[in-house]
Amino acid sequence: MVADRALVPQVSNLLCRRLPVGKALDKPETIGKHPNLADWKSATRQTGSLRYKACRRFPTRGLLLKHPPRGRRALSGRAGHCAARTGRGERPSSACCTMKIIESFRHWLSPRPVSKSTATAAWLRGEPGDGEATPLLANAYQQSSWVYAAISAKAGKLAQTPFKLLTASRRGGERELADGPLFALFQQPHPRLDRFAFWELLATWLDLRGEAFVVALDEAGGVLAPRPGAPIRSLLVLNPDHFTEMVENHALIGWRHAGAGSRAPLAAQALLPEEVIHVRLPNPFHFWRGMSPLGVALLAAQADYASSQFMKGLILNNADTGLIVTTKEHLSAEQIEQVNAALRERKARAGSADRPLFLGGGAEVEKPALNAADLQFLENRKFTRQEILAIFRVPETVLGFTEDANRAVAASQMLHWVQNVIAPLCRRLEAGLQPVVRAFAAGEPALGWFDLEELPELQAARRERVDAAVKLFGLGVPLNDIARVLDLGLPAYPWGNTGYLAANQQPVSLRPAEKP
Fold first, then answer.
1. Contacts of 99 by beta carbon, 8 Å cutoff, 6+ apart
2. What is the span of the domain harbouring residue 334?
3. Which conformational region is residue 310 in: left (phi greater than 0), alpha (psi within -120 to 50 degrees), or beta?
4. I need a labelling partner for 423 at 20 to 30 A (CA). Which of 62, 234, 346, 501 fits?
5. What is the value of pTM for the model shown?
6. Does position 91 have pLDDT exceeding 80, yes or no?
7. What total of structural domains would you count in the chain?
């Protein structure tokens, strides 16, 4: 193909006008077959004067390599010679300038990508826009209302139950502790934790992680094992996420506590198994750790949180699902902003007299409507609430939902909840903290237990048992037998093994008694 010598100055002028100073150049690639470009390349190979003219019209100080070499020594051949001469202020070689001009001309001929609005692209990907909350559940205890309500209800009921201490002397007598170091310890387990916060933290971690970790501290804040005679001054509840079990030869040799920096209540250290009080729920998949109920309820909590986010957005927008503007042609950023401003102005006048909205350019406005599935989110929230409460074993009446229950049914559910959920939780914690109680016993048997009979629900049940005991005693049943069967908590009386009847009661016979 014959080269056109007049094409080179034109291309040089186009490049000088097209490429600004400081434009980054990509790595040279194979240039496609373009007739004018081929003529220009042929002309530049034949005439060095035209090459120098193009380089002079297109100065190299306006060119920047996208991936520059790490040093002048890394360049070799013509490229190194050109870079060295350019750094000294000398005229670059014609081959280097030709390569740069060809590469710049390739960029000038390449098609420009069509820029799309970031908001439109995010909407097409299904991502939230600016200022919108992501409907993802990061912390169920902090974000899910039903999870927090269920866990706090169990923890509050546990903290409401009195924890009592009992010691038995060698003479056979029992005495309830009302003072002393052991009583003071469980009244204020930690300088920053009272007895209510202590029991609530234990119950909360059992529901969140399926396990709870407690360490005993001495006067200086050091960890010690709760052995008999140990100088225990406080009890600290720690985060189970900071503990890692250390197992060797199929045996637990210790716990590694990671801590959380200087703000943690306990520094990072390795602890012996006897220095850690580990209370956990049974886990069939991990022998050393507990199984969390929250892991089972996580899917229901995520669905409930997404439903609440949907309801929030629906209320904030006055049940308006928004508008979709469609056009046959691509709109510029200025036109999109003009349409958005018109729609915002119309929405800001909600409640006043409506007025028409004119959109040019063949734009069409569509308003999506809620379908029947979208309107069922309230029923879905009710179902997820029941599922979450069932996993944590909390009846709805405890949280105040009495849609299908009267007063008698609610009282029966509360009593069932205390006897079948709270009572086993109390027994589990009693067994876990028994080493701490024995550490203060000084050789005498000691016991710590939750007095469930002090709860209002069980007091009402006790009154019902007393009424039944009065009826049984009137039928001649001995009092000691009644107290044992109905669990009245009465002592054994010497006369309690004898049954009594009223004086006006006579045995029934077939013949009437003879008159005296």
1. 28
2. 322-348+360-368
3. alpha
4. 234
5. 0.65
6. no
7. 4
